[in-house]
Amino acid sequence: MTLPRRLRMSGAMARKIITGYSNPTIKFVRSLRDKKHRRREERFLAEGLRLLTDAREGGRLPEILLMASGRDEHPLLSDLEQAVVESGGDVIEVPTDILAKVTGKDNPQAVAGVYAEWDTGLSTIDRKAAPIWLVVQAMRDPGNLGTMLRTADAVGAGGLILLDDCADPFSVEAVRASMGAIFTQRLAQARWAEFQEWLRQGEGQLVAASLRDAQPYRGAPYAAPCFVMVGNESRGLPEEYEMACDLRVTMPMKGRADSLNAAVAGAVLAYEVLATLEG
Amino acid sequence: MTLPRRLRMSGAMARKIITGYSNPTIKFVRSLRDKKHRRREERFLAEGLRLLTDAREGGRLPEILLMASGRDEHPLLSDLEQAVVESGGDVIEVPTDILAKVTGKDNPQAVAGVYAEWDTGLSTIDRKAAPIWLVVQAMRDPGNLGTMLRTADAVGAGGLILLDDCADPFSVEAVRASMGAIFTQRLAQARWAEFQEWLRQGEGQLVAASLRDAQPYRGAPYAAPCFVMVGNESRGLPEEYEMACDLRVTMPMKGRADSLNAAVAGAVLAYEVLATLEG
């Protein structure tokens, strides 16, 4: 399923109206819910006026803008439509039920967009651009990935670095859970060895929650740029990764369990780092 | 779909082997993935040896214990089987693929159990039993509910109180995300008016993250028993609820967004309360 040539090539545009689910463009957009297609097309799907507005303010415009035909008018949406047209993108009006099928949501937002993915190499990261960076290793749940991006935004982090085999940050679920932070946070993907090499080429304190030889997470000597790392949802971090950290900290576990949800652990730790760095 | 009489009545038992997916007991168990059936039967499904062991240590045994036929032997599982038999429950061995269909998971745990739900009235809560209680209002995501239970366990809370129309805490997703805390934390469900009346009959500080007339969340005068409340995933708390709080606190939001994932916000706040109460 590739984007129909007619659409891909269109420069000057008028708003198109598509009412059939079997339309090739609709099929193309819907195919982006599937990782295999996303990877091949290097395109992904985001939904909701707020997300699309965040994207635009972050410098990203959709190549295809889908709008539900029964939507309420909104000045931000008119502006967005105008910007998409001016950038040579396509604007398509579809019935609400088609938008629901495209996004896989019963109550779809009134608008969705197809975006080009971007370079997620470590070289795109300027570590001095922010005091905190979040790092996840083999995080498998796209909702958790999106939540980490959202948390990164909230603590003023620079971005999220994905190590090893994580879920796809461009999946519909991750994009949704990020609440727009996918567009405003830097995003990098790397293997552990590559990350280590990159990290040690400059300043940077690698911190992880750990039970091994760890100090209390409150009052630990966090230092910027601080890389806060959490591991896989069920296995946590490999021992080798923990031992490579500059700082291992432990959070109180008062109950029966010895771990928190990974995205929760990352957030509690990141907020502690923020409080320390801000003094 | 009700539990077949033969099974319901069985006291003395031998381990049964069921190989057919259309078997009434299997159909009954599978029906518990559906909220309507759970509500009618007042039974729910939990999976995994760790959860079932937590349940047992929390005083709860399954009425039906399902074990995959190809499972590894484990002393905890043998003990559990013995306990279920002694309590008059049923032990059923099924092929792994049937267990997968029952739990809806591609890689099912080797064991699952059917449990009776319990009374979740506010009157079952002894507020003095713990320094922290978590409260959620209209939380719609069962994964978030389970995560809140898991966080409650970690901070040494007494339990989780669900206000208004929340997701079902006995859903497979919530039980799974709770990592066993569903069995060890107290669980109450109430409407707001009822909760307020109950809360004000005794000691208790109601705290919420808020942007209205709030003080910084660090250094706020938290006091036990502290009820940490978070709201609906998209709407947050109604203004009336926030204004009824004893303490409104605000967390730094350094980025573009003005909110965190609800379960994340609850956890960051709960850990801050814990640190304050422990001085």
How are the secondary structure elements laid out?
Two copies of one chain form a homodimer.
Chain A lengths: L4 H5 L6 E2 L6 H8 L3 H7 L1 E5 L1 H9 L6 E5 L6 H12 L3 E5 L1 H8 L7 E6 L15 E6 L4 H13 L4 E5 L8 H7 L2 H4 L1 E5 L1 H8 L5 E5 L5 E2 L9 E5 L8 H5 L3 E4 L11 H16 L2
Parallel strand pairs in A: 1-4, 3-4, 6-7, 6-11, 7-8, 9-11, 9-12, 10-12
Antiparallel strand pairs in A: 2-5, 3-5
Helix pairs in contact in A: 2-6, 7-8, 7-12
GO cellular component, one term (chains A, B): cytoplasm
InterPro entries (chains A, B): Alpha/beta_knot_MTases, MRM3-like_sub_bind, Ribosomal_eL30-like_sf, rRNA_Methyltransferase, SpoU_MeTrfase, SpoU_subst-bd, tRNA_m1G_MTases_N
GO molecular function, one term (chains A, B): RNA methyltransferase activity
What tags apply to this protein structure?
2 domains, Alpha/beta_knot_MTases (chains A, B), alpha/beta, seven-stranded parallel β-sheet, Alpha/beta knot, five-stranded mixed β-sheet, elongated, 279 residues, transferase (chains A, B), methyltransferase (chains A, B), tRNA_m1G_MTases_N (chains A, B), 60s Ribosomal Protein L30, Chain: A, homodimer, RNA methyltransferase activity (chains A, B)
